[in-house]
């Protein structure tokens, strides 16, 4: 999550002195009052206008008796009101938490009953299934509905700054896991931890803002997810934050062109969608100078294609809610050679090298360190790790061992010190008595020009590779014949013990609200699909097969 001017002496000096999220926000209001701060469906707000709305919302909370340390939840779409609510909690020292709009209503209710927030700011369309239960089970909660109620609350209260004394060790946010595998887990982060993460980032990023125009950051990931990592950097830089209502390729491209976006934080899937968007050539994306990407592993062939298309403007880091970035960096200049051409897959498939001050150790199942080059569990020791899940000591013990965060991923270090992340240990596939890491198969599938996305999953006793096609291959091809040809292609490219038992083409691979592939949903798709003859690899020339079938 890179951002502009962090190498500048001014910002570095400010970072050394700032202690709370409130101090960051107030500095931004003061230094950048007349600059545009936020662009969303309502239009543009300057920093002064944003400050007024934030302080009116803070005053409403204060009038309800909400105090420092209380939890404020939002259940909102990707709107500027969600940003305002977050900044209002910075102002008064309450603890901000948010549910994404795709979380099942009963999971949201169960989480609120566990955490017992003082406030719920909600969209009635999202909260309707649970609102009555919220009133009954949390009788003291203060509810504020998006729309007329929200605007009236702001209009009826004069803007007022928060008066509570804040400390860097105060918890300022509850980060929520996505909840795709059960109830969301909550992680409380202090001002100190979050600003330390920003300070670590500032030691590596050396990107200058545009010389003659406002710096514009665009969220290509939800603010309720990794997009929240752009909040403090945007405020520190005095940049404009563009909040899309959806993250489709056409929407993102149009916003980049319209607002001359300089930096966009994107998911790998969003980049893949942009590369596959048939109308992309109609948009002027030349304003983009920097694209951090994250939330899941990026296929090396696709980031190489993106570099050839857009230039050496991409950067990724490794991290998670339990161990904030940066753990590793692969900076833009580390993606390319001296001529600006993308490096090989052996580098682009990695997450870079470990940051100074952070330790990463690959371990076996008994938690013993493994030698260089051996694959095992990725564990991290970092000054910006979490201290535990909120009200969940049992889950904490599973993830935090002797101060080390067990990332849940498997991987290894190569001789040059690059960390290769092969995916979640829980996603491994058992084939003929041997465990396969899906990424080792999926990366090879991405080298075929027809493949948009690839997902290797367990289906009974078989390893099935599920693929979606790029737009240019969706028409004019027999999909069943193409499945056979792709199986032959992989038979040629992969060792025998890594070849899938079957290849299936689907319209789209299901994704989460973070634009990540949902392997569980892919497995359910296969279970629901009618049985048919598998496309197992055979001997022969895959090149001849492909060229004959697809002239």
Automatic annotation (TrEMBL):
<dbReference type="InterPro" id="IPR050237">
    <property type="entry name" value="ATP-dep_AMP-bd_enzyme"/>
</dbReference>
<dbReference type="InterPro" id="IPR045851">
    <property type="entry name" value="AMP-bd_C_sf"/>
</dbReference>
<dbReference type="Pfam" id="PF13193">
    <property type="entry name" value="AMP-binding_C"/>
</dbReference>
<dbReference type="InterPro" id="IPR000873">
    <property type="entry name" value="AMP-dep_synth/lig_dom"/>
</dbReference>
<dbReference type="InterPro" id="IPR042099">
    <property type="entry name" value="ANL_N_sf"/>
</dbReference>
<dbReference type="Pfam" id="PF00501">
    <property type="entry name" value="AMP-binding"/>
</dbReference>
<dbReference type="InterPro" id="IPR020845">
    <property type="entry name" value="AMP-binding_CS"/>
</dbReference>
<dbReference type="InterPro" id="IPR025110">
    <property type="entry name" value="AMP-bd_C"/>
</dbReference>
<protein>
    <submittedName>
        <fullName>Class I adenylate-forming enzyme family protein</fullName>
    </submittedName>
</protein>
<feature type="domain" description="AMP-binding enzyme C-terminal">
    <location>
        <begin position="440"/>
        <end position="511"/>
    </location>
</feature>
<feature type="domain" description="AMP-dependent synthetase/ligase">
    <location>
        <begin position="30"/>
        <end position="390"/>
    </location>
</feature>
């Amino acid at each position: 999550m890179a951002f502009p001017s962090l190498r500048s002496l001014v910002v570095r000096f400010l970072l050394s002195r700032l202690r709370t999220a409130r101090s960051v926000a107030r500095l931004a209001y003061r230094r950048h009052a007349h600059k545009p701060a936020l662009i969303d469906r309502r239009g543009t707000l300057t920093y002064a206008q944003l400050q007024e709305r934030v302080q009116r919302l803070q005053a409403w909370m204060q009038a309800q008796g909400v105090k420092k340390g209380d939890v404020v939840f939002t259940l909102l779409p990707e709107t500027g009101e969600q940003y305002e609510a977050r900044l209002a909690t910075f102002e008064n020292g309450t603890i901000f938490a948010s549910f994404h709009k795709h979380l099942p209503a009963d999971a949201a209710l169960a989480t609120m009953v566990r955490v017992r927030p003082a406030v719920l700011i909600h969209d009635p369309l999202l909260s309707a299934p649970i609102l009555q239960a919220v009133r009954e089970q949390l009788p003291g909660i203060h509810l504020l509905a998006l729309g007329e109620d929200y605007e009236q609350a702001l209009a009826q209260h004069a803007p007022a700054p928060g008066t509570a004394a804040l400390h860097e060790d105060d918890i300022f946010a509850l980060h929520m896991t996505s909840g795709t595998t059960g109830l969301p887990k909550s992680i409380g982060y202090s001002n100190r931890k979050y600003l330390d993460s920003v300070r670590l980032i500032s030691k590596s990023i050396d990107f200058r803002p545009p010389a003659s125009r406002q710096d514009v950051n665009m969220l290509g990931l939800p603010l309720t997810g990794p997009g929240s990592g752009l909040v403090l950097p945007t405020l520190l830089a005095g940049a404009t934050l563009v909040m899309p209502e959806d993250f489709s390729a056409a929407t993102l491209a149009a916003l980049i062109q319209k607002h001359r976006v300089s930096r966009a934080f994107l998911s790998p899937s969003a980049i893949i969608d942009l590369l596959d968007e048939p109308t992309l050539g109609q948009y002027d994306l030349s304003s983009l100078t920097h694209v951090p990407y994250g939330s899941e592993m990026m296929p090396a062939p696709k980031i190489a294609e993106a570099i050839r298309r857009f230039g050496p403007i991409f950067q990724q880091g490794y991290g998670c809610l339990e161990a904030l970035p940066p753990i590793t960096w692969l900076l833009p200049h580390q993606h390319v050679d001296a001529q600006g051409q993308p490096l090989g897959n052996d580098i682009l498939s990695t997450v870079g090298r470990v940051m100074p001050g952070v330790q990463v150790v690959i371990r076996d199942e008994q938690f013993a360190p493994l030698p260089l080059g051996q694959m095992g569990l990725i564990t991290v020791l970092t000054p910006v790790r979490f201290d535990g899940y909120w009200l969940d000591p049992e889950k904490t013990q599973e993830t935090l061992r002797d101060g080390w965060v067990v990332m849940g991923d498997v991987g290894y270090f190569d001789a040059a010190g690059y960390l290769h992340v092969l995916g979640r240990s829980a996603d491994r596939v058992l084939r003929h008595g041997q465990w396969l890491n899906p990424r080792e198969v999926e990366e090879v599938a991405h080298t075929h020009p027809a493949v948009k996305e690839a997902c290797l999953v367990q289906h009974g006793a078989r390893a099935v590779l599920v693929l979606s096609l790029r737009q240019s291959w969706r028409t004019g091809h027999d999909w069943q014949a193409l499945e056979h040809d792709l199986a032959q292609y992989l038979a040629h490219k992969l060792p025998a013990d890594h070849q899938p038992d079957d290849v299936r083409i689907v319209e789209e691979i299901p994704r989460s609200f973070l634009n990540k592939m949902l392997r569980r949903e892919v497995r359910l798709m296969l279970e629901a699909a009618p049985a048919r003859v598998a496309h197992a690899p055979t001997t022969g020339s895959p090149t001849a097969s492909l060229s004959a079938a697809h002239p």
